[in-house]
Design brief:
The chain contains 4 helices and 5 strands. It has 99 residues and is α/β, with parallel strands linked by helices.
Length: 99
C-alpha cells in the first residue's frame, strides 16, 4: 500500500473505517482554527514524547498543514512499528477540496 494518499482517498478511508487514528501534527493554534472531525492534535514537535498515545493495533492517518512534516512523522512511527498513512497536501488541500 502507498504511504501517501490523496485528500479524497483519506476522506473515503475515514468514512469507511472505524478503526483509524487521525493524527493532526499542526500546532495547537492551527488545530484550533479547524480540523478533521475526530482528529487528535499531537504537534509534530511533541511527537516523540507523545508516542504513548498511539495504539499500535490501529492505523494512523497523519496530516499537517501542507504535507511537509507528515513524512518525517511517518518515518518515526514506522521505526517504532506503527502503521501510518500521510495525507498528501495536508490540511491546506483538505480545506480546499473537502471544506
Amino acid at each position: 500500500m502507498e504511504s501517501e494518499i490523496t485528500v479524497i482517498e483519506a476522506f473515503e478511508l475515514i468514512s469507511k473505517s472505524r478503526d483509524l487514528q487521525i493524527v493532526d501534527l499542526r500546532t495547537p493554534s492551527e488545530f484550533a482554527k479547524g480540523s478533521i472531525a475526530g482528529a487528535v492534535n499531537i504537534p509534530f514537535a511533541q511527537l516523540s514524547v507523545e508516542l504513548g498515545d498511539f495504539d499500535g493495533r490501529r492505523k494512523s492517518l497523519l496530516i499537517d498543514q501542507d504535507g511537509s512534516k507528515s513524512h518525517q512523522a511517518k518515518a518515526l512511527l514506522d521505526a517504532c512499528g506503527y502503521t501510518s498513512l500521510v495525507v498528501r497536501g495536508g490540511y491546506v488541500d483538505w480545506q480546499s477540496i473537502i471544506g
